[in-house]
Each structure stands twice: as C-alpha cells, then as structure tokens.
Amino acid sequence: MPLIRNSYGKGRVRIMRVKRDSARHEVRELSVQAMLSGDFDAAYTEGDNSKVVATDSIKNIVNIVARDHVGAENEEFAGLLAKYFLDRYDHVSGVDIAATETKWTRIAVDGAPHDHAFVLDGNGKPFVELSATREASRLVSGVTGLTFLKTTQSGWENYVFDEATTLKPTADRLFATAMDASWLWSSVPASYPRANAAVLAAALKVFAGTYSPGVQNTMYLMGEAVLAAVPEVAEITMACPNKHYLPIDLSPFGRGFDGQVFTPTDEPHGQIECTVGRG
Ligand SMILES: O=c1[nH]c(=O)c2[nH]c(=O)[nH]c2[nH]1
Asked: Binding positions for urate (predicted)?
C-alpha cells in the first residue's frame, strides 16, 4: 500500500522566555508545534526509526532555540527554529511551525508599567453574589481567574525537608497565578466600580513590589493592603493556584541553567487559600 503522506513532530511545547539582561524583564510565552517532513517513510512502512529525530529531541530543540534567542519576536523565533532543523538534518525537507502566544502586559503600579510584574490580556471575570432576607443582606464582589505573573522577587525556601522532599529551595523563581478573590462589603462605597478597581490595584501593587517568600505570605500581604485601601471591605477571600514555571536545565546542551527559559505547567498546581479580615 502506498504511504501517501507523513509528518510528525511535537505539539504543545510550552515555553516561557524571560529576557532579563536589565532590570526591565521581557516575557514571551508560547505553545509551539513543530512538525517535520522528509525522508521518514521507512519508520512507517518498515519500523525503521534510524532517521527519526525523537519528538523528545524536537522538544529539546524548541527549548534550546528559545534559550539561544530569548528576545526574538514570534515570527523570528519560528524562522530560527525551522532553520535549526533544516541546517542540522539533511533528510528533513520541510518544517511546519505553529505557535500561539499567551500574551502578558505589564502591571501598572500607580500608573507606571512595572519592570517585572505582568497580567494576562483581557483578564479576570468580575462577579457579584448577594444573599438577602428582609432583615439582612450579604453582598460580595469578586473576580475569577485574574492571572498575573512576576519574573523575579519571588522565592521558596525554609520549608519542611524530610524523606518526601525532592524540591530544591530557590530565592529567585517565577510566580504566576490565576486568582479567584471575593470581598465582602460592610458598607456601601461611593462607587462600586472605583472601589473594585482599588481592591485589585492595591493587591497587584503589593504583588509587584514586595519580595515573595511564598504564595501564602504574598496573599496575606495583598489582603492586608486591600483592607487598608478600601474601608468598606470587611474581609477578602483569595484562592491562588501556584502555576509553576519549571526552569529548564539546558546544561546538557552546553547552555547555562540561568533562569531564562521555563516550562509553564497547569497541572498539578499548588492551591493556596486564605481569608483576611479586620479582626
Ligand atoms: O509559594 C509556595 N507555597 C507552597 O506552599 C509551596 N509548596 C511548594 O512545593 N512550592 C510552594 N510555593
């Protein structure tokens, strides 16, 4: 039977590039699919893999090219990746790269775009919940999935080390979350939209501007700042998945292990929750 067409590669190679050669970091997060075509018929028809570049190696090459070009724009990155395969493997005749971007924009702190703290575009769904009887009511405003990230000023150290521990401590990691938060009103603010905006601004200012020794402490400090900024809020409840960005060790490929490329992961994630109130 004729083998009419074939191609193979690696899909959903998630890669975060952090350009950190100055205090002002730039982040580019992509999900990449890299597909190869060429002299691969024998792998299909004969079970002969001798010319097949393993898809695991294809993933490594995506990471290597990302590390070698942390500042390249998406279009340039696609070109550089294709060139890597075509230059290195004579029997590869075609490369198809498709990449979708997770777009981050800088958090504005007091109106100024922050150097290393970012929010996702088009972010977070606001909601309200009201429970009312004739005697009393309980009004809560909130947001689900408010996604933000910082590329430095975050660590995780001094936790329990025992036979279950494999994680290495670090004083510099990425911290990303998609926060669900709700705040209970104790009185009516002059403007709900303005007060809601002030809640999020106070929280994000602390996130951007304060070293995080752990998600737990940062959430508590964010809650404290919200209560200080908006007197009509009685308490705030937050739930933050710790969306791990795993540093990629490219030292086997002669590149530094230096915090410029990361694999974004959604699963499993830490899940940190707290409520901060007025005592
Ligand atoms: O901020 C964090 N809090 C944790 O409880 C935790 N646990 C872990 O493995 N990493 C982290 N990070």
From this structure: 55-56, 173, 215-216, 242
